[in-house]
Specification:
Blueprint lengths: L8 H24 L10 H13 L2 E2 H7 L4 H13 L3 E5 L7 E5 L1 H22 L4 H15 L7
Antiparallel strand pairs: 1-3, 2-3
Helix pairs in contact: 3-4
Length: 152
């Protein structure tokens, strides 16, 4: 179901596309990420572990940017992961006000144990689209996502 807004054709087209994009993303995320709760992880916690596993240690600001969370939220996420022994903070040698966050052996083991199944879920969900359609979707999403904010 698209928008019921009675604006201009341009407005209705944009609203309809936006609604479909958001609903599809939320539906897909829900299906792909359903297994995370069984691991005792939130989506944000998984995002942190995955980023650290694949990129190596990051400071909290860069980590927040990678998983699209606020720096305030990322502190709580890291606190909870640190309590479980999945990540470790290390004070920056050059600037003692900053910490680097790295994944621990336990955290790496957790990612290694379930990441292949996570990827398989994504591949399965995305298989509704052809390879060319997936490429096009990726380009379109990147175009929309990287657009500069417009003045209000």
């Amino acid at each position: 179901m698209g928008t019921q807004y009675t604006g201009t054709r341009e407005e209705k087209r944009a609203l309809d596309a936006f609604i479909k994009l958001i609903r599809a993303a939320q539906s897909l995320s829900g299906r792909v990420e359903a297994h995370l709760s069984g691991l005792g992880l939130t989506v944000s916690q998984f995002g942190v572990l995955e980023a650290l596993f694949h990129l190596g240690p990051l400071n909290q600001k860069n980590l927040a940017g990678k998983i699209l969370k606020s720096t305030g939220n990322i502190t709580m996420v890291i606190d909870n992961l640190e309590k479980r022994g999945l990540v470790k903070r290390t004070r920056d040698q050059d600037d003692r006000r900053h910490y680097s966050v790295g994944i621990t052996r336990k955290g790496s083991g957790l990612i290694i144990s379930f990441f292949p199944q996570h990827v398989a879920r994504i591949v399965s969900e995305m298989s509704v689209l052809s390879g060319a359609e997936q490429d096009t979707l990726g380009k379109l999403c990147k175009k929309v996502g990287l657009q500069e904010p417009r003045p209000q």
